[in-house]
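Sample entry (363 residues):
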Amino acid sequence: MRVLAALSGGVDSAVAAARAVDAGHDVVGVHMALARERAELRNGSRGCCSIEDAGDARRAADVLGIPYYVWDLSERFEDTVVADFLSEYEAGRTPNPCVRCNEHIKFRALLDRATALGFDAVCTGHYARVVTVDADGGPTRELHRAADLAKDQSYVLAVMGPERLARAVFPLGDVVSKAEVRAEAAARGLSVSAKPDSYDICFVADGDTQGFLRARLGSRPGDVVDVDGVVVGSHDGAYAYTVGQRRGLGLGRPAADGRPRYVVDVRPATNTVVVGAEELLEVRRVVGDRAVWFVDPPTRWTTCELQVRAHGSPVAARVRALPDDGMEVEVTGRLRGVAPGQSAVVYVGTRVVGQATVTGTGR
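Predicted structure, serialized as tokens:
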């Protein structure tokens, strides 16, 4: 099988590519240049797509003895992932840029280009498992959680859908720990074996999301109000707040009962941030759109678990499909602080069965 290995410059993608080579595939390495100012974007373990990362990816390819290329996808990344990030926050929603990157870049732009060039699949260093089972229509590929639940990335991969899953390879899905990957990299002579993991939002290299939003969207002063509409503070832009947020509110007037207050609503139309008690964050119903299903869309309530954050804990729930690519989830466990724009992923056991973008919640 001809496999295009996405080499980020990190240890995970390097070991994944090595395992693809060991499996007997014809492997070619490619580094995606996603940042317009690549030389400025790495700060320790923050950021990615720097000149350093491209060099590390090239050295990994040299050790593995595979061809290596750099593809400039920075314009596509800016026009989709970054633009979506800004527009979603501006509209009072809370996006997950990793989900959008997987949707628009890694498993659309990259995979489509790979297919056009005659590759059978794309290999990445994501932590997730693909399980092939026999079904009435023939073998079916299922997306499951990784063996190492602490590193599991099935949540951000759920947006890819079954058709793109059919052309994806995740060699690290069965590893039991990141330490195993680093040890394997060292044994293979890969210089990235001790390289720090990147974290936070890759294009916000200093970790200051509010500063990034302010620089792109400008200052937009407004009021912070309580649920009765009483002004209790001010802000420099409602776009910088998200439902469930407690820190950084800068409230000038404490609550009458002395309890902490949280963001319970963001209203871009009036540039207002609403704060209230923690119990107001309780969620019993989640509705989403742009649903992606790995099973036949369930028209009746189906028992499942719901996860709404990349590293969040799943909660007991039941799900059903709605018309026009909608999804409705009734939460039977405890869930708080869900914001429009987040990705809602539903599981049955370890298997991903569906994903949607949250449009609303109910108590």
